[in-house]
Structure formats: C-alpha cells, structure tokens
Specification:
By secondary structure, this protein is an alpha+beta fold. It folds into four domains: 6-105 and 462-468, Uridine Diphospho-n-acetylenolpyruvylglucosamine Reductase, domain 2 (2-Layer Sandwich), CATH 3.30.43; 111-227, Uridine Diphospho-n-acetylenolpyruvylglucosamine Reductase, domain 3; 231-346, Alpha-Beta Plaits; 353-441, Alpha-Beta Plaits (2-Layer Sandwich). It is built from 17 helices and 21 strands. Strands 15-12-14-13-19-20-17 form a seven-stranded antiparallel beta sheet, with helices on both faces. Strand 8 and strand 9 (188-191) form a beta hairpin.
C-alpha cells in the first residue's frame, strides 16, 4: 500500500530545521519568504504551491547533508532543476510543508573525454551548456529539447527526456553511462563509471533515470557523446496530411535510415500560431499548408551525399503531390530559422491561451490514425477547440495539444483538462500507445497509473519506492498515485 502523504498534515515552518540548514549551507544556501517565489510555480502556470524554504547546496556532499537533515526532521523534499516540467513534477504542494531542493549551484562540467566520447557533468548544468562543452571538444551531445536553455541535466535525466533526436540516438536513458545521486537515507550513490559494458547486477542508474526524483536526487552523470556531424541538411515541407508526412519519413528511412537525425511533424494550426505570435518567425514557403514536416539529415562524413538524398526524396514527393512545397536550407542561419518554427510551438501555444497538453506515443505507423481520431473526438467534446498537434513523428511521440476556444474562458477550459486528456488517451490506448511519452507523470497524471500500469507493474513500482524511500520523503505525490 502507498505510504501516507507527508504533506497531508499542515504545520508551521520548522525553525530548528531551517537553522540547521543555514548552519550547514550558509545564508546563500537557504531562501525563505518572497525569495522562494520563482521556485513554487511551474512553467505552465498550472501549479502554484508553497515551501518553507528553498535550499541551494553547492556540491554533492551538501546535498547529502541537506537530505539527512530533512530526513531527521521528517520533512519532504521536492528536487528541482530548471523548473521546466510540463506535468508539475518539480512543484511543491500548497500546504508549504515541503522543502524545495534546487540543484542550480551544482553547475560544473567535471570533464570531457573525446577518446572515450564521454561528458561528466553536474546536475545543475543546463542542457545547452552541456552541449556547448561537448562541442568545444569536437563532440556532439545529441540530446536536444525545446527548453534546453533552461532545463538542467538532473531534471532531464530524472524525467528521461526524449526530444528531437530520439529517432536516431534514443531517449536520455540510452545516453547515460553513469550516475551520481543522493539516496533518501542521505547516502551518496557513486555510479560515475564511463564504461560501455558493466554487467554487475542491477542497473541502479536506470532506476534513477526516469524516476522523477522519487527514488534519488541525481547530482551528476556521465553521458555518452557522438561524433560531431560534418554534413547537415535541413528541409521544411508542406504536406497535405499526416499520411503524407509518414510516407515521406518512410521513404527517407528506406533510402538511408542512418542519415535521419530528426523528423518533426507540425500542424497548420500550430504553425499559424508560431508565425503570428512569435516575433521574427516567418514561413519560408510560398503558401501555407495543412501540415508541415521538418527533416534533418546528418553524417560524420563531409561527402555523405545528404544534399542529393534530401533533394531526390523531396523532389519525387513534389512530383507525386504528397509534398505541396518545400525549402532546403542553404546556410546555418536558414537551418536555425527553420528549427525555430518547430521550437517555438510551446511558447506560441502558451501565448494563444490556456492549453491542455497530451504528451502521448503510439507506434509510428499509427500516428495518422491517432491524429485523425483524437481530433474528431476532441472537436465533438469541446466545439471550437483549437487542435495543434506537433512533435516527433519519427519515434511516434506526438504532443496532441488543445488550446481554449475563443468563446471559452481559461478557467472553464482548464476545468475540463482531465476529461480532455482522458478522451485523447482513450484513442491512444486502442492504438497500443502510452499516455506519457517523454514528459513524465508528475503531479498531473498519477491518477492514470492504476488503469494503465496497474497490477504487477504498479505493484513493482511501489515496492521499489518502499525499498528506496520508506518514509516517502522524496517528491511525494508525484508519479505514483
């Protein structure tokens, strides 16, 4: 049985704990009062909690010391990185009984080895900074997500983030060779091994990756790098339908699957929001289209023939009518401008009004059916809703997002969020998909777990949680119902 929620009993700030934390971490390491405002609300504005304090340890030993103090006082901890969670996974509850533990000061790159092709980095380093460190060593950290300028490595790994390049390199989990973490009893798990092969029992790092801070607080990691591409081609195509987008992906995969680095789908509705609400975002095509595809090919060889490949495949698609118009980037600036049209989708939708986000996945072959059936179901449920699906067609992960109708208030629309999510997920389930592809479960979706992951699977998760965290002090109320 799940343990009682430690935040269920409201209590005043534990002055003894705060004094002990200040003594251990220094005044700069403990924030209270209004100084905590930037840590208690999630990026989407769905959850605004309270906290007795935000603690900001500067190294792993300080994280462990803070954890031991909180355990001693039976105070729950909410680990937080860049606070970019889409599902409230890093937000404290409303009663103020929890401590937020920010990893932002653990921001050192410990080392890059271009021979081993590894990057050792602390949890508070942003994904963008980690990418830059790899690039300076002539390597590529292939993990890429829209929030990489703010998202931190610890949170990226705790949620097993996916992103744009999953079709080629896999999710975050596939890139993690080693992990350092503080466990719920205050012990430091040192698994910072740079080994491709290490077959010595349970892979604890894989339990921690994707656990959303419920089993341990990741403080550092060893990430696997790849060679820096020497040849890159990016194109934007206007297509008539999701079926046409899938056909284009299948043709690229048939011709050279190793060349595909990203393959992104965007709806006409979503693209219109980007070009109308984001300054400087312009569509580089002669006419708008019902849907769009961004394809990126990359190779470590300068003479890989990617330009010929992308022009041949798109040229044939233009001839047979499955692609209405297309542009192939002629420079790095044009590649960046095309990618910006994809990366600004979340921000544009945020500016357009309240949204209900469905981070779902289905088999790649089922993506067109998902979009068609979920669109029909949601339009029937909420007349006038704006439907703007986009995402990673190449790995089957579509962000099936819905924006409030023009004649409905934000509050009224968000009041139906679970009803809308359940409607989308009913379609996803018939297609053998998942209700969370890369954003995690967080505070938003634990209610789905018994139905989707019940029985032996959920029981195993609860047993693991009990073994690691018997007091339920690490990110309680997240992930598990």
């Amino acid at each position: 049985m799940p343990l009682p929620h430690p935040a269920s009993s409201s209590r005043p700030a534990d002055t003894a704990l705060l004094a002990a934390l200040r003594e251990q971490l220094g005044e700069a390491g403990v924030l209270t009062g209004r100084d905590t405002d930037g840590y208690v609300e999630d990026w989407r504005g769905l959850y605004r909690g309270r906290t007795m304090a935000v603690v900001r340890p500067a190294d792993t030993d300080a994280v462990a010391a803070a954890v031991r103090l909180c355990v001693q006082h039976r105070v729950a901890i909410v680990p937080q990185g860049g606070n970019t969670s889409m599902v409230g996974g890093a937000s404290p509850h409303a009663d103020g009984s929890e401590i937020v533990l920010s990893l932002s000061r653990l921001n050192r790159v410990r080392g890059v080895d271009p021979v081993d092709m590894t990057l050792s980095v602390e949890a508070g380093v942003t994904l963008q900074a980690a990418q830059a460190a790899a690039r300076e060593a002539g390597c590529l950290l292939p993990l890429s997500i829209s929030s990489e300028g703010s998202a931190q490595i610890g949170g990226v790994l705790a949620t097993n983030a996916g992103g744009n390049n999953t079709v080629r390199y896999g999710n975050a989990r596939e890139l993690v060779l080693g992990v350092e973490a503080v466990l719920p009893d205050g012990q430091v798990f040192n698994g910072m091994r740079r080994l491709r092969k290490d077959n010595t029992g349970y892979a604890v790092r894989h339990l921690l990756v994707g656990s959303e801070g419920t089993l341990g607080i990741i403080t550092a990691a060893v990430l696997q790098l790849a060679p820096q591409p020497r040849s890159v081609e990016v194109a934007l195509c206007g297509v008539a339908s999701p079926e046409a987008a899938l056909a284009l992906f299948s043709e690229f995969r048939r011709r050279d699957p190793s060349a595909i680095q990203a393959f992104e789908f965007m709806s006409g509705t979503g693209m219109a929001l980007v070009t109308s609400l984001i300054d400087g975002a312009t569509l580089p095509l002669a006419e708008t289209a019902p849907h769009y595809v961004l394809v990126e090919l990359a190779s470590g060889r300068e003479t890989a023939g990617l330009r010929e490949l992308i022009e041949e495949v798109i040229g044939q698609a233009l001839e047979d009518g499955s692609v209405a118009d297309a542009v192939v980037a002629e420079s790095g600036a044009q590649r960046a401008a095309i990618w910006r049209l994809r990366e600004e989708h979340s921000e544009a939708q945020k500016r357009a009004g309240a949204s209900v986000k469905n981070d779902v996945s289905v088999p790649v072959s089922k993506v067109p059916e998902l979009i068609a059936r979920a669109t029909a179901a949601c339009e029937a449920l909420v007349p006038g809703v704006r439907i703007a699906p986009f995402g990673h067609l190449g790995d089957g992960n579509i962000h099936f997002n819905l924006i409030q109708p023009a004649d409905m208030t934000r509050e009224a629309f968000l009041a139906r969020d679970h009803e809308i999510m359940d409607t989308v997920c009913a379609v996803v389930r018939t297609l053998d998909g998942s209700f969370s592809a890369e954003h995690g479960v967080g505070m938003l979706k634990p209610y789905m777990m018994p139905d989707w992951r019940g029985g032996a699977e959920l029981d195993a998760m609860r047993r693991i949680k009990q073994a690691f965290d018997p007091l339920d002090l690490f990110n309680p109320g997240k992930l598990l119902p």
